[in-house]
Structure formats: structure tokens, C-alpha cells
Amino acid sequence: MRFEIRALRAGAGATTLRLDASDADAAMEQVRQQGYDVLKIKATRTLAGLSSSEARSFPLGLFSQELLTLLEAGLPVVDSIETLKEKEVKAERQRLLARVVTYLYEGLSLSQALEQFPSVFPPLFVATVRASEKTGDLPEALGRYVTYQAQLDVVRKKIVSAAIYPLLLGAVGLLVIVFLMSYVVPRFAKIFEEIGGDIPFTSRMLIKWGTLVHDHGWSMLLGVVIVVVAGVLWLLRPATRNWIFERMTAIPAIGERLRMYQLARFYRTVGMLLRGGIPIMPSLQMTADLLKGHLRHRLSEAANKVREGMPISVAMEAFALTTPVSLRMLRVGERTGRMGEMMERIARFYDDEIARWVDWFVRLFEPLLMAFIGVIIGGIVVMMYFPIFELAGSIQ
Fold this sequence. Notes:
3 strands; mainly alpha; three-stranded antiparallel β-sheet; 16 helices; Ubiquitin-like (UB roll); Receptor-associated Protein
């Protein structure tokens, strides 16, 4: 992402700096390291004319797959990217690829050209391309990256697909409850008020709710909309998501699976970089953003130990970045010299563990959710009919 920063440095006055960073905090840190005090920061459009949302929506996986196909067909790199530019229907993506081609004609390597657009092409992708330029095998590197993305998507799709039915069930149940409380109950309340008599306490509460909805329905609807919009805006804040993530990690069962999910992405990414010829220290630095909170801090400390000469398996074990299985596999990788392959095996092992847990959780959660919704709906219906039962008993 591109940022414009108004900064102040002693003896130099105020100045405006423009730079690229993953987020606002990283951009401010870069400026502070240069001796400036940040006055104001704002995100701007990227070098290619893409906004930050457009840059994030760039189909990097599809681009990699199509570029790989064209290269394997025998087209040179420049011709391949020009072909992809011509097939694009969105003007901003055409401008981006045109700029990449321009840089290639100016004599830059492909990795250097892609590096000019950090908001579109992440450091991981650029590093993969740069490593392939040393060996002269760009198609193999792209194939490795495409496989890497596909493997990441597998677990994500499993989690999403497993969540669809519970979410749909919850949404339908919520709509039924809203319908009962906003339409059916107010009409029953009017009937009960006309009948009068002694009715159970729970039914009286339900009648009061029905009367309240009948008299102030639109005001309540407006309040609900305001609360929902405020909640959505609150959830969109990165600080909020980080706070929720930290709270979820404190839950024993869920926290362990979240930790395992992060470690799976971490090990898979490091393994891909190592197999691509990138040394261990740059690989660890480039993958630090895949971990959150305390795990990122532990990785930083483990990387320092590796830099000092400690074996990877020992450093990872010392800072709780392994499980018993992954620790043994790391040791095998150190003995055989196939650390990249072993890290990818660790990631697959973690993925299988997560998939099994998600399947078990969904099988348990779905009937519990159905029972919970059924109890609520049944309770509302029973409370509505209690006065009718009482009336029928008194008539008899």
C-alpha cells in the first residue's frame, strides 16, 4: 500500500514523504527510523493507479497460473505479460501490466519490475521470482507458487464450507424469531388485552413486549439498524479483529487450532521459499507477518537464535513454535538436508489435523444449534398459547 506522510525532523523542518508499506504502522516505523516525527499519514493511490482495494482484488493466483501457462508454451516473459495485458478487461489492471512491461523494456528484471508495486505483488511472490532468476527456471518457481496458493486455499475452503450450514441455520432461525416477536406476538398481545384475566408471568412479559413493538416498532427498527451498522464498522477495524483473535486464542480448544492454523501457513511458506533457493533467515523474515500476537514475537526471538547458530529445530522448540510431531520432522530435515520438504510435510500434517477438528466441531455444533433455536422458538410459541390454555380450562 502507498502512503503519504507529513513528517518533521529537527533542523530540516516539515516535509512530505511517499513510501510503500504493508500497513500504516509499518510506514510510520520506516519514517521514524529515518529520524522523523510523524505529523500526518494517509493512504494514497498506488504507483499503477490502483486504489488499495483494487490492488488487494488483483487476481495474483490467476495471474501466476496464466503466466505459467504462457511460459510453458514457449513465450518469452515480455510477450507473456503483454498477452495478459491485452486480455484484461479492467483498465486499471491493464495499466498495471503495461507499467510492468515498460520496466522490463527499460532493462529491469521481472522481480525488479514487480517490486515496484508492493501493494499488488507481495514480497513473498517477488522473492520467489527473484530466486528463480538465479537458476533460470521461472516456470518451476511459478508452478511452486501456484501449488502453494492452492494448498492454502484448501483449508480455507474447508473452513468456509463447514461454516455455511450453521450460518444459514442460524440466519433462518433468527428470521423466524424476529417474525414471531415483531408480527405474531403483537397481535396475540392485543387479543389477550381484550380478553383480560389472570395469565402467567412469562406470558405477561411477552404481551408487554408485543405492545412495545406495536407502539414503537419503527423506532426500534432504526435502533437495531444503527447498532448493526456500528457493530460492522467496529468489526472492520484491524484493532478489533486483533482483539477478538487474542480473546479466541485464550479459549483452550479453539486457541490451539488457531495456533496450528497459523503454524501451518508459516511452515508451508518457509518450506516453499527454502525449496526455491532462498536462505533460511530471509525466509523467516518474510513469513513473520503470517503469525500474529505472541507467536510473531516468539518467531522473532527464534530467528535471532538461528542467526546466532542455533539449529532450527532447537530454536523452534525453545519458543513453542512446534508440536512433538513437527519437532521430529524438523530434526529429520536437518539430518537429511531437506528442510524445505519437511516443512511442507509439517504443514500438510497440521492441515489434516485442522480438517479433522473442523469436521468434528461441525458435527457437534449443528445439532446443538438446532436444539437451541428450537427451544427459543418453542418457548415463544408456548408462552403465546399459555393464556389460551388457561382460558380453555376456565371455560370447562
